[in-house]
Design goal:
The complex is a heterodimer of chains A (508) and B (117).
Chain A: H1 8-22, H2 27-55, E1 58-61, E2 72-75, H3 77-100, H4 103-107, H5 110-126, H6 130-149, H7 154-185, H8 190-199, H9 203-221, H10 229-233, H11 239-264, H12 269-292, H13 296-317, H14 320-351, H15 362-365, H16 367-381, H17 389-402, H18 405-431, H19 451-473, H20 475-490, H21 493-500
Chain B: H1 2-21, H2 25-46, H3 72-102
Classes of the chains: A mainly alpha (508), B mainly alpha (117).
Amino acid sequence: MNNPLIVLPVIIQLATAIILIFFWGKTTVQKVFSLFSGVVNLGIAIWLFTLVENDGIQFMHGGGWEAPFGITFVADMFSVLMVLLTAICGLAVTQYATGSIRNKLVRFGFYPILHFLLMGLNGAFLTGDIFNLYVWFEVIIISSFVLITMGGEKIQIEGAVKYVTMNLLASIIFLTAIALLYGLTGSLNMADLSLKVAEVQNRTLVNVTAALFFIGFGIKSAIFPLYFWLPASYHAPPPAVSAIFAGLLTKVGIYAILRVFTLIFIPDDFMLELISWVAVLTIVTGALGALVQNNLREIFSYLIICHIGFMIAGLGFYTEVALVGVVCYLIHDIIVKTNLYLMAGLVFKIKGTYNIKRLGGFYKSYPKLSLLMAVPLFSLVGVPPLSGFWPKIFLIEGGFDVGEYLGVLVIILGSLITLVIVAKIWTEVIWKESVELPKRDYIKYFHELRPRKQYAVVMPIVALSMVSLFIGFGAEYVIRVSQHIAADLIDTSYYIDAVLGTANPSRP
Amino acid sequence: MEILLIIIIGLLYAAGIYMMLRRSLVKLIIGLILISHGVNLLIFLVGGIVKGEPPVIGDSMKLLTDIYADPIPQALILTAIVISFGLQSFAIILIKRTYKVVKTDDLDVLNPQGEEI
């Protein structure tokens, strides 16, 4: 159904960012308005989600040009789900930032840039045009460059050099792939490409293009062997920034891989084999990397890589059951990774260090907070019935269906190592006797904050933990949504018909 | 014309990758700039090169029947140029800032793991 309102998530963020620029330097106004727009955006995302769930795919042809000639925005279940998750994480991080980001950074324009980043994310999820996807990726990376370097400390600058270089290289490879694809088909609309790529005679060139897309998105989503920029940069920026990066920036790469490899290129046996091996190596290297780190945020960085591997593995199995697992895992992972980074920031605020060897005594001094931290940590491992448990059932079942026993084994191994790491964090941070740490003047400690700011920092962690608990205990609904999405990913005819208007899209 | 462009694109990619693999930060940026020029030319090439046939429908006709120059690659290149301009200016400012903070141009000396907080 043609519905121009689906671009509202993009427009809200753009308008917010522009209005915030007019309040440059007025920190309180910026914080209040940014929170207000976050709430509005969440409301719109929920409305859009229920609309698409009940009425089917919505789309908008830019400037009234029918697909495949104009730029099309498409809101199918997968897109609106990602927009909803972005809205949840965006609001949580905005709220966290009001308590944790120093006013100096707010005066550099932290909030406008954050909203530009969210605009880019919403745009990337909603677009139905491959070149437009590239443009949204550029919006995302330029905003993230500013956020990662904001403050200009030595560690940030050093991390940023790697981050910037790899992301620029990724977008160049992505653009090369688009050029080849346009040369092969003469189209940019993803639904149209899906039909045209299938008809191309030169399969070698199609496979080369597919591989270029895989490398380009692979750098962004940090798969083996292209992940090394991630642990080198994600521990550098302020906690609020690294939380939004951890939750959403690698996942937008996963979203793009899923979109491109289910809609445009249907992977052949060679490609599936390649994806599976990449997934296996990603899980193993990520898990082993996380084992040897001592910095809390670096541990989580490697765990991001490990869990990206789970999703890639599900794509490698390429059955509907496995894709249910992938989508479900994506939902769980976005929420829980954002939450873990916010939690790491809180730990730093309380103790003044990220080093787990020197942390300790949380259970004694902050029993309620320890209980709160248990939710994201145990969701991450997937202790039943918390949220990480359900997707893995589907992933493993999907693996057994196609006889990829190595993939299944490595997924279980990855979960086991995650469990070891979580147990290590639990004993070192929560249970171990606390040691007296030297006070640092430049850190504003948690107990020095006013109660209002303390709530501002703890509330988003509570809220995201509630969402995690909902995913765990309301798994029936979440899995139903994932099954709907996976069915659409496998059978693309519904998407194509709706966008190109070739048939009356009236599926429930 | 196509052959010439193909050779130039190949050279730009090769030179860009070579420059990126060197250790200096400045050469890294030069490499990125060269590759992004290569991509722009690649889009231009694969769009098909047609001389003197503008994609304009005459008064007496309803459709373009003849061969015509595809306008989309040019729009894409224009967008890509603007984007890469913005990104490259950011990257250049970043390396200037890096040089000021770290006091080195050598990528091997950059080590964000060093600090123990």
